[in-house]
Design goal:
MFS_trans_sf; Growth Hormone, Chain: A; about 75% helix; single chain; about 475 residues; transport; transmembrane; mainly alpha
Length: about 475
């Protein structure tokens, strides 16, 4: 398929991106970005606590690792402002190339870092990890909205929600690739080799996907919607100021519309991996007996139990659940076109509300119950995440669309994803190993999203191209 086609436009025949190139370019970028994020998220649970925070107890190691995980979410709003400015002022294409390069370089360098176990690097190893994590967040702050605009601003009439699912599909694909690579490494390497150097492989391999993503994106041309803004001399001189002046209400609503999606997403990936692989009390006591250090009554009383699955078994369970994430992301596009974004998301968010109340009975059902929780949770994730690729950009005029959708998407990441693993671990410990409070937390976030959706107008039929602030 050729890289460009021609379509008749008023006054001239201008080149446009072909459907195939739009799909690949929007999908490959978010796949790389989410792959990079998932690689870190998995390592943050499995290896980083002991490699970068060795002088702390087990719980503090995990919380320190999650705190560095959250650094990226603090950086993302800054990335949305920086990349949003360039995306609205100079175009989508160049901005997308810059965000991909930033993410790729930061991820590759994480794979090269010495750990805190190396003498002399006790301080510098965690500090450099924080810097690289900040760069990852900065890049993702500009990546998602650019990919969503690339897809939707090239979409045919009445297919924006369908095209908007293409960048969203990068999330489950990136997750699967990242975790399969971790599993292959863990199966083929001894635990000592995996801890010594095997964990680095997924970070280093990201360079291959970045090169592919750059090749595709460099062949793009600018979207028709932004081209019209340039031709009509409506480019915002300061997109950040313009979007806060003209679209402040949409910024607030968009942030809370994404809230339940973010919380669900990181509970289903990061928290479930932590909870699922933490030993049961009986398992911990048996391990202590085998090591010749029986657990005291006080230690047993303070122990916070999990489900006791092996790391590899639970990763396979997560991968199986994420397949449903991908399937229902694709399903969500046609549904959002047929019923409208608002009506569909109200129904799905109500499902998330109920799902949060089912955490205890599902997690108490052994393998079948836990697998059911993962399938239901990831299916809901696909249904709520898929339409966001169209809905958030549709909330904003074309000349501030990159900035507006990026700010909403990424400020929501602070309220939702940045703190979700941290809050979930604290609530889990507060409930002495029960996930009941974690489920209630998800339900409460769904209530906030429902309120935002009820206050938002339907965006399916708006004039997407001829709309400027």
């Amino acid at each position: 398929m050729s890289s460009t086609d021609t379509t008749a436009l008023p006054g001239a025949r201008q080149p446009v991106n072909s459907r195939g190139r739009v799909i690949v370019a929007s999908l490959i970028g978010t796949t790389v970005e989410f792959y990079d994020f998932y690689v870190y998220a998995t390592a943050a649970v499995l290896v980083f606590p002991k490699l970068f925070f060795p002088g702390q107890n087990e719980t503090t190691q995990l919380l320190s690792s999650f705190a560095v995980f959250g650094v990226a979410f603090v950086a993302r709003p800054l990335g949305s402002i920086v990349f949003g400015h360039f995306g609205d002022k100079f175009g989508r294409k160049g901005t997308l190339v810059a965000s991909l390069l930033t993410m790729g370089i930061a991820t590759f360098l994480i794979g090269c870092l010495p750990t805190a176990l190396v003498p002399g690097w006790e301080f510098w190893a965690p500090a450099l990890l924080v810097i690289m994590r900040f760069a990852q967040g900065l890049a993702l702050g500009g990546e998602w909205s650019g990919a969503a605009l690339l897809a939707t601003e090239n979409a045919p009439a009445n297919k924006r929600a369908i095209y908007g699912t293409f960048p969203q599909l990068g999330a489950p694909i990136g997750f699967i690739i990242a975790n399969v690579i971790f599993l292959v490494a863990s199966y083929t390497l001894t635990p000592e080799a995996f801890a010594a150097w095997g964990w680095r492989v997924p970070f280093l391999l990201s360079a291959l996907m970045v090169i592919l993503g750059l090749y595709v994106r460099l062949k793009l041309i600018e979207t028709p919607a932004f081209t019209k803004v340039v031709e009509s001399n409506e480019v915002a001189k300061l997109p950040l100021g313009r979007v806060f002046k003209t679209s402040w209400r949409q910024l607030i609503l968009g942030t809370f519309i994404m809230l339940a999606t973010y919380v669900l997403f990181y509970l289903m990936t990061t928290f479930t991996l932590t909870y699922g692989t933490k030993p049961t009390l009986a398992g911990a006591q048996a391990a202590a007996e085998k090591a010749g250090k029986p657990m005291s009554e006080a230690a047993a009383a303070a122990f916070v139990p999990g489900l006791g699955f092996s790391r590899n078994d639970f990763l396979w369970m997560l991968i199986a659940g994420v397949v449903f994430f991908g399937i229902f992301t694709l399903v969500s596009g046609p549904l959002a076109e047929k019923y409208g974004r608002r009506k569909m998301l109200i129904a799905v968010t109500t499902g998330i509300f109920v799902f949060g109340l089912l955490f205890v009975p599902l997690f108490s059902g052994g393998f079948v119950g836990t697998m059911g929780l993962l399938v239901i949770g990831f299916s809901l994730m696909g249904l709520t995440f898929g339409p966001m690729g169209a809905l958030l950009p549709e909330l904003f005029p074309t000349n501030v669309r990159y900035t507006g959708s990026a700010i909403s998407y990424n400020f929501s990441s602070i309220l939702g994803a940045a703190v979700a693993p941290f809050i979930a671990v604290a609530l889990w410990e507060q409930a002495k190993g029960s996930p009941v409070l974690v489920g209630i937390y998800l339900t409460a976030m769904a209530v906030l999203t429902l309120i935002a959706l009820f206050l938002t107008r339907e965006t399916r039929d708006l004039d997407y191209e001829n709309n400027v602030a």
